[in-house]
Amino acid sequence: EKTGKVLGEFCRCYKEQYGVSLFNSVRYEIEGNGGLQAQLLHRKLPLEDHVIYSGNIFQYIEENKKWRNRFCVVPHNYGLVLYENKLAYERELPPRVLVNSAGYKILTSVDQYLELVNNSLPGVTPKSGHSPILKCPTDFPLILWHPYARHYYFCVMTGKEQEKWRAVFQDCVRHCNNGISEDSRVEAPAFTDAVRMYRQSKEQYGTWDMLCGNETQVLSNLVMEELLPELRSTIGPRLKGKAPERQRTWIQISDAVYRMVYEQTNAQYDAAMARCEQERPQLESTIRTDMDQIITSKEHLASKIRAFVLPKAEVCVRNHVQPYISSILEALMTPTSQGFAEVREVFFKEVTDMNMNVVNEGGLEKLAEYMEKLSHLAFHPVKMQSCYEKMDQLKLEGLQQRFDVSSTSVFKQRAQIHMRQQMDDAVYTFETLLHQELGKLHGKDDLCKSIQRILERVLKKFDYDSSTVRKKFFREALLQITIPFLLKKLAPTCKGELAKFQELIFEDFASFILVENTYEEVVLQSVMKDIMQAVKEAAVQRKHNLYRDSMVMHNSDPNLHLLGEGIPIDWGEEYPGQAEPEPAADRRRRAKQVVSVIQDDEGALPYEMGTEALLQPRSPGPREPQEPGPGAPPSSPDAVMEIREALAQESLGDGVEPSVQHATPESPKARGDVPPEAEVPHVPPASPAPGAESPSLATGTVCHQPSAQEMGEGMTPLQPRGTTESGEGVQTEF
C-alpha cells in the first residue's frame, strides 16, 4: 500500500518532468550551447572485457553461523560475485552471492557496526556482558552496512590486507552509487528532478544521502524512508528474545520488506517509463513544430514570476547566503584541488617509472607489458586511494547545519568520480599519442625522449582540463548547497502564490512549461551571479592552480580527437614481446585483470591454497596443531592463531562435510551468534595490489568470465533461493 501511494505521487511528478526534460533536450540540440572542448581524450569503454579483481576472503554465513572461505570476482560493472572457491569459478559453476554495493557503507570496526545496529532499533541495546550480534575471529573485519537491506560480513588476516580490500570496496560503492546514467539527456534529468520535487512536496529540502544506485534502488529508498519508521513503531515492541536476537530479527524484517518494495517499485517504474516513451514521438513533434512559441510563452511566465519573487529572493541571498559563499568555496577548494594535484602526481610518477623500466629492461619489448598496466591506472583502487582520501578532509562544520546539508558524502563522492575520470583521460591521451609515435622511433634513447615529451604535453592538457572540471564542480556544489536553503526560506511567502501563474501557460504547452520549475530557475538566477563571481575571483587569484575563464587553450593537436575515435589500442596483441602467440578463442576467454591478488607481502596467507587442496576432503577427526610458517602473521591474544588455523583448515573441507564445525570449541572468539542469511541487494568488490602476480587470474590461466546474469545484469530480482549440497542457498541481488 505504501509503495503504491509513494510511486503514484512520484510517477505523476516524473510525467511532468519528462515533458520539461524533453523540451530542454531538443532545445539544447537545436541551439547547441556547448561548453569548452576538453583537451584530453575520453575513453568510451575503459573496462571492457576486464576483471578488476579476484581473490579469497572470509565471509560470515548467517544460516549456519560459520565463517567460510570464498573466492570473489569483481567484474567490470563493480558488482561483487562470490564463488564457493576458485575451482568453482574456473568450472563456470553458479556463484554463491551476487551483490550490488549501492547505498552501503564500509566499516572496518565491529564497534562501529554495533553502534549503527543499536541505533537502528531504539530502546534495544544488549546489556554489558551479553553476547553481541556479531563476533569476528580476526582483528580485521570488513562489514557492509545498509540502512534497509541485509548486511554482509567479511574478514581478513592482516591490517595491510584490510586496507587494500577497503579501498576496493569503497571504489565499488562509489561506482554503484553513481548508477543513473548521465548519457541520457531526457530520462536522467527527469528522474532526478522528479525525486527532488517529490521530496520538496514533503518539506524535505537539501541533499539526500540515499540518492544512490539505479532508478529502482533510489525509488525503493524513497519508499523505505517513509515506511521504515512506521514499521519500527509497529513491529519493534512485538519482537521477542534477548536484545541481539531482536536486532537480528529486525535486520531480517527490514531486508525482506526492502526486497518486496524493490520488486513492486521496479514493476511500477517500468510501466511509467513505458507510458512516457509511448507519448514521446507526439511530444517531440509538438516541440519541434512550436519551439519558438514555447520559448516565448516560457519567457513571459518567467518575467511575471521574476517580478514577484526576485525582490524577496535577493534580500534572502544578501542576508543569509552571500556572506557564506566564500567560506563554502574555500572549504570545497582545498581538499578537491589537493586530490586533483595527487592525481597529477600519481600519473607523473607511474609514467616516469615506466619510462625508466622500459629503458633499463629492453625497450619496445617491455613497453607493451607496462602500457597494459598503465592503461587501467584510473581503475586501480589501491593506487588511486591516495587521491581519493584527500576528500576526507572536506568539512563544512557550522555551514553544514546552517544550510541543512545532511552529509558531505555527496560532494566527496562526486569529486572522486571526477578524479578517476581525469586520470583515465590523461592515461588514454598519453596512450594515443605514444602509439602514434612508435612507428617513428629508433632505439631506447628515442623511446625515452618521446615518452618524456608526450608526458609534458599531456600534463599541460591535464592542468587545463582539471581547472575546467573543478570550477564546474565548485559551481554545482555551491548551487546544491544554497538553492534548497533558499527554496525553504522563501516557501512560506512565495510557494502558496504560485498557483495564480498557472493561467499564463497555454494549454498546448502545459506539458513543457511548469510554474514550479520556472520559479526555481528564478531563484537560481538570484544567487548564480554571486557564485560565478566567487569562483571567478578564485581563478583570478590563481588559487589552487585554477585558470581564468578568459584563458582558452586552443587545441594544439587538431587531429588528436580524430585519433581518439579509432579502434582501442590492445598493447598485448600489437606488441606481444617474446610471448608465444595464443589462439584468439583463448584470449577472449581469459579475463584481463586490472589488479593482482590482494596478499600480504610478507608471505602467503594461511587460506591461499591451491585448487588441489580445495578438492581434498578432510578427516573429521581432531588435528594436531601446526607450527606457523616463517611468513605467518604474528601471534595475537585470545587464541586468534588457533582460530585462524581452524579457518584455514576449514577451507579444505568447505562444503564437503557440513557437520564438521568451523572453529574449535575452545576458542570463544570463533563462536558467533548471527541470524540466518536473508537474500538482498549487492555489495562491493575488492581489488589487489599491483606488485604481485595473481594466482587467480595469472597470465595463461583460462578463467570463466561471469555472464551478464552472474553479474546481476538483466536479472529478475528476487529469484527463488536455490538449494545446494551445503544448504546455504544462492543469494540474489537487486
Automatic annotation (TrEMBL):
Disordered: annotated span: 573-593, 614-734
PH domain boundaries: 50-174
Residue stretches of biased makeup (Polar residues): 697-708
Amino acid composition bias (Pro residues), ranges on this chain: 619-636
Alphabetical list of InterPro entries matching this protein: Niban-like (IPR026088), Niban_1/2/3_dom (IPR059060), PH_domain (IPR001849)
Family from the record: Belongs to the Niban family.
Name of protein: NIBL1 protein
